[in-house]
Amino acid sequence: MVAFLELLAGDAAEADFEGPSEVARAAGATPQELERIDYAKGLALQVRATLEERRRREGELGALFESANDLAMLTNLEAVLQAIVTRAKQLLNTDVAYLTLNDERRGEYMRVTEGIRTHAFRTTRIPYGIGLGGLVAQATKPYSTADYIPDERFRHAPDIDAAVSGEGIRAIIGVPLLLGTQVIGVLFAANRTVTPFGAEASALLVSLAAHAAIAVDKARLLEETRAAVAELEVTTRELQTRNEAVERAADAHDRLTRIVVEGGGVDDVVRSVAEVLGARVVVLDLSGDTIASSAPDQAVSDYEAAVSRRSLDLSRTAGSSDIYATPVLAGAEQLGSMLLGPREVDRDDGDPSTGSGHRLDDGDQRILERAALVTALLLLFRRSVAEAEGRVRGELLDELLSGTTPAPETLRERGRLLQADLSRPYAVVVADVPGDRARVGQAATFVAATHDGFAAVRQGQVVLIFPDCDARSAGELVVEGLRLSAGAPVTVGAAGPVPGPLSSPDAVVQGYEEARRCLAAAMTLGREGQVVTADDLGFVGLLLGSDGHPAAYVTSRLGPVIDYDAAKGSKLVETLRAYFAADRNLTRTAAALHVHVNTVTQRLERVTRLLGKGWQEPERQLEVQLALRLHQLVA
């Protein structure tokens, strides 16, 4: 007996327990003694088996507790699932382990695997009630099979059987992952040989599945919590953005209201909106010209102009991720457009804007559209004021053209009220404009007002005068300003500059008559759509004008020379007559005047300084000769 205890204490192998019996037989032990020894051996082997089972069970429990501890440490769902199947394969010492999770819409689906070789098996989706896994999920208890394919206890499906066969799997055991009474998935272990799974394997896998279900639920809850926190952060940012948008809208509303109340202008609106939205703001008229800009030095690009035209075509806000425009509307009437350039700073990250990706949100779009509405109001008000002032200016110009010039003091006071200095020289323009006279008259009034001038409609023609401006520049202003309203080429006659009404009451009338003659000559010559001055026409204008004025022509061509003779007592005009009579021969000219050739040369040099270097060119020469002849006739 002691020998068997020693063998047990020494953890001897099972074969070593035959030793005491053999020693007793060799010593001649009686049958009764041998029977007692065999009985003791049997008890010792039972004790040894019990100890072995306990050691194995302790090892499994240790591994199980270690697995539970590892699962408790994991928080990522994918990592948890992978750890479960890896532990299941190790604990049961199987070829394969895998896990399926329930999909309420499409049945069970394979989530993670360990030891699987084929893609078909790894991606298999198992409908409810099909195969061993379907039976486990329905019955909520473990099931196993030593050989899956021929086992008739399960509902087989061709695609699932094909996947199992392709993987070479024969024996399978599956246990449910339970949260209370809810099955959230099935944990499997499998071998590629026919292998029965006993109750111990089932119990071990059930224990692992119980820990696994808790770990899966914990990981799911953590992921849901993270998702909720992320969603809360997004919601918080959106709320913060909306609060900022509300604050910007309130700021913009206060600024725009203050501009209207305090009598501000479009420039103030543009500047305020640019500050609120952190972007360049430009107001354009219907022709694309800039009315006001927060960055005057920066020109409007072709793309920006195209966006503005599109907003006018659509009669609503249009644009892309960085350039937007909204129409400036007064009812159905379009007055222009308001352009919003790229944002200067991205409010999300604070980085400088690159001009892309800065979408105009609803709040900022409403600010832009409200600013456009205020701009329309200010433009209408400015137009009304301009029209009222234009009517007053038009009445004064009509009086001047009619020859009923008020007394100087009255004229000076009326000029002061209109903020116009009537002592300055003025260019006079007469335009022949087809189309709606009322509309053209309004356009002329606007053009005159924007250049501190006066406009009136007289005898079916538009008359404008502009201070401190030459005839050609004034004519070009009128052509450009009336082009859109006329809808056709604008023909213009221009004169001046002539002395202002306070300096010479009749000068404006004379300039008007000259401009009319130029216009009549232009129409006769077929020069529609052009600006024509007396310098352009020369003596032809005198011939074609309906009511020519020889003295004015002489003055325009020889005035400086005549004035010099009058002031200095010189004989430049006489020298010119002799010079042309001698066919421009200096010697014969000197002989006719009874002076030295050098004297003639000096006089002609003086004429050149007075008339300019080109007076001897063929066309100018003809005009000078005609002026000399007319001067002789009218003197």
Automatic annotation (TrEMBL):
- Sorted UniProt keywords: Coiled coil
- The answer to whether keyword Nucleotide-binding applies is no
Residues of the GAF domain: 76-226
Ranges in a coiled coil: 222-249
Which SMART domains is this protein grouped with?
A: GAF
Asked if the record carries the keyword Nucleotidyltransferase, the reply is: no
Q: Where are the stretches annotated Disordered?
A: 342-362
In terms of InterPro entries, this protein maps to: CdaR-like_regulators, CdaR_GGDEF, GAF, GAF-like_dom_sf, PucR_C-HTH_dom, PucR_C-HTH_sf
Q: Which family does it belong to?
A: Belongs to the CdaR family.
Q: Which PANTHER family match?
A: CARBOHYDRATE DIACID REGULATOR (PTHR33744), DNA-BINDING TRANSCRIPTIONAL ACTIVATOR ADER (PTHR33744:SF1)
**What's the name of the protein?**
Cyclic diguanylate phosphodiesterase
- Source organism per entry reads Nocardioides luteus
